[in-house]
Amino acid sequence: MNEPIHPVQLEALKRATPAQKLEAVAALYDTGIRLRMAGLRMTHPDWPDERLEHEARRSLRHAGT
User: Fold this and answer.
1) Which residues, 6 or more positions from 45, have their beta carbon under 8 angstroms from its beta carbon?
2) CB atoms < 10 A from the CB of 37, how many?
3) Residue 62 CB neighbours (<10 A)
4) What pTM, to 2 d.p., does this model score?
5) 59: buried, middle or exposed (CB in 10 Å: 19+, 13-18, 0-12)?
6) What's phi and psi for 34, nearest 5 deg?
7) Is 7 helix (H, G, I), strand (E, B) or coil?
8) What is the tens place of the pLDDT at every residue in 46-58?
9) What separation in angstroms does the CA of 24 have from each of 12, 18, 19, 39, 60?
10) CB under 8 Å to 51, separation ≥6 — which residues?
11) Which are the contacts of 31, defined by CB distance < 8 A and separation ≥ 6?
12) What is the DSSP code string of 23-41?
């Protein structure tokens, strides 16, 4: 999981504007929400999308605690 950053990726990150970096972080967060929702859907197929999203956001918000 702790793979070194490829030099090409590192250069792209260095050249990115703050707005581009923020956009990339937001896209990764959205992907994390969708992945967590998919996992929750497997264990709770009866939950509506709104609840899945709420629980996915809650679990990611508390992931580091």
Assistant:
1) none
2) 19
3) 8
4) 0.75
5) middle
6) -65, -40
7) helix
8) 999 999 999 999 9
9) 12, 10, 9, 23, 17
10) 44
11) none
12) HHHHHHHHHHHHHHHHHHH
